[in-house]
Amino acid sequence: MQFRTEVPVTKSNFPMDYTSGIMLLGSCFAENMGDKFEYFKFQNSVNPFGIIFNPVSIEKLIKRCVDKTYFTEKDIFYHNEAWHCFEVHSELSNLDKDEFLLHLNALIESTNQQINKSTHFIITLGTVWIYRNLESHQIVANCHKVMQKHFIKELLSVEVVEKSLQNIIQLVTSVNADAKFIFTVSPVRHIKDGFAENQVSKANLLVAVYKIVNCQQSNTNYFPSYEIMMDELRDYRFYAEDMLHPNQTAIDYIWIKFFENYVKEEEFKTMQEVCDIQKALHHRPFNPNSESHHKFLKSIDRKISAVREKLPFAVFDSVV
């Protein structure tokens, strides 16, 4: 007797390995996936400009970085005793204007380099509900708690989303011809927009991504994280306390489905070795001064040395 519907995941035709450069962009679920890549010591970067939910704002930042269009004073504003930019997340906001601009433009430089050298781009799309600034008529990535009267809320059409995703692919491949793309729709529900509105938003994203992936089979894949959450994990025990975000059990499950199909199988052994080290590093000893614990530490050092022979870029935390 079967008690759940399992979502089939197609094996990637361009799987990743430890030589891959992986860039993750998009919603908070991109951060969840990025944490997993970091845990297993892949070479990855995640949301240099912070969490971005809609595809148009992701496209705008990629274009800015590819073209090296630096931020100027006209791109930032002062509000609630800090400097902000409508194109980036509020975690980057700064009390000092000059420091803010320097940091933003340093991120353009580093992200430009990442775009040029990364092999895989994982784009996690959260919503197509956007806010347009009434003064500039531009779509913003973050409202930074500016009063609602300064924006109008809109729903991006399938056509606009599809065009934005096409532009993202074209921008990246214009400087990195061999880049591969993995699109996924975030399993996080945006019910602050409304229950029906969230479903409409996810539907527009799904249709647009479906069109893109089916038109560009050679360098794009679709990973069904949204479908796994909605169909395989359709129970509130897989949600965090807010009942909107997947909890750690769900994230771990989706990650397993991902790496089993998007990472080369010959890397699984190294991943397990890294995992064993990570668990050991967070082991809390009963007696840190005991001889057995000192032997344990030497054993960890040997394992780290063995892994670093294969992954010289891997950096591990100190023993807890």
Structure description:
The chain is an alpha/beta fold and 320 residues long. It has helices at 28-39, 55-67, 97-117, 158-175, 195-215, 225-232, 248-262, 268-281, 291-310; strands spanning 21-26, 43-46, 77-79, 82-84, 120-125, 129-133, 139-140, 151-155, 180-185, 220-222. A 5-stranded parallel beta sheet has the order 2-1-5-9-10, sandwiched between helices. Helix 5 links the parallel strand 9 and strand 10 (220-222). It is globular. The mean pLDDT is 95.
Please tally the helical runs, counting DSSP H or I stretches of 4 or more residues: 9
Number of β-strand runs: 10
Low-confidence stretches: none
Largest sheet: 5 strands, parallel
| Principal-axes shape call | globular
Broad structural category: alpha/beta
Strand content: 5-15%
Mean pLDDT: 95
- N-to-C span: 45 Å
Helix content: 40-55%
CA radius of gyration is 21 Å
* Series of secondary-structure elements, N-terminal to C-terminal: EHEHEEHEEEEHEHEHHHH
The spatial strand order of the largest sheet comes to 2-1-5-9-10
Blueprint (SSEs and pairs):
Elements: E1 21-26, H1 28-39, E2 43-46, H2 55-67, E3 77-79, E4 82-84, H3 97-117, E5 120-125, E6 129-133, E7 139-140, E8 151-155, H4 158-175, E9 180-185, H5 195-215, E10 220-222, H6 225-232, H7 248-262, H8 268-281, H9 291-310
Parallel strand pairs: 1-2, 1-5, 5-9, 9-10
Antiparallel strand pairs: 3-4, 6-7, 6-8
Helix pairs in contact: 2-3, 2-4, 4-5, 8-9
